[in-house]
Amino acid sequence: MIGLSYAFQLPEGNLKNRFGFNSSVGIHFLNKTKTNWIWGLDWTFTFSPQSQVKDTYSLFDSINTANGNVVDANGEYATLLFYERGWTSSAKFGKLFPLSAHNKNSGICILTGLGFMQHKIRIEDKFNRAPQLTKEYRKGYDKLSSGFMLSQFVGYLFLGNNRLLNFYAGFELMAGFTQSRRTFNFDTMEQDTQKRLDIYYGPRIGFILPLYKKLPDEFYYK
């Protein structure tokens, strides 16, 4: 089962102090056995609009003016944009529980995942005129964090008997045990050694291209 998915996610745990809601798009490669066990791999990309990055005013306290702006090389206020960016990758394992004898490829689907989570604040200088925020200096402010992740999905999987309509929808929870991957944060002037619990949760829907094994030819005799 090759699929594409979309999720609307809310943050919890330590992540809630850094970001608001986000979107997640993903791709997966899953295999379902004859006994309805499911296993495979998935990858997701996480992103959010600028309004969902929190506490951006204090992020540049060490280089801000008194009114909270960063001055660029032209002596003007730099136009800075902030976004959430991240990704996850995991191995999935679970089972399908059919609800009808007429379609044993559809029913309640439960999946557990084990993998990796990463996220950061994407900082953009709109006109690229602030020497304090070149590509290398931004790493001191972007809060890059990553670590081991567990995930859980519970929903409904539908694989049509006519093979034309194939989808899934349900609720997903991701819990990342992360920490900062930067050796020094410029805003706090020290290394961040906090152990974090970063949680995403929300609905996920996906569309599937199922690839079936070729059935053997059948011969009928009178």
Chart the SSEs and their pairings.
Elements: E1 2-13, E2 22-32, E3 37-47, E4 80-100, E5 103-125, H1 135-138, E6 145-159, E7 166-180, E8 196-209
Antiparallel strand pairs: 1-2, 1-8, 2-3, 3-4, 4-5, 5-6, 6-7, 7-8
Written account of the structure:
The protein has 222 residues and is an all-beta fold. The chain has a single domain, classed as Porin (Beta Barrel). The protein has 1 helix and 8 strands. It has an 8-stranded antiparallel beta barrel. A hairpin with a 4-residue loop joins strand 2 and strand 3. The C terminus is likely disordered.
Count of β-strands? 8
Q: Give helix and strand order, one letter per element, not per position.
A: EEEEEHEEE
**How does the major sheet shape up?**
8 strands, antiparallel, barrel
Overall structural class, as computed from helix and strand content, comes to mainly beta
Model regions low in confidence, pLDDT < 50 over at least 5 residues: 216-222
**Count of spatially separate domains:** 1
- Please give the order of strands in the largest beta sheet: 1-2-3-4-5-6-7-8
Distance between the termini: 38 Å
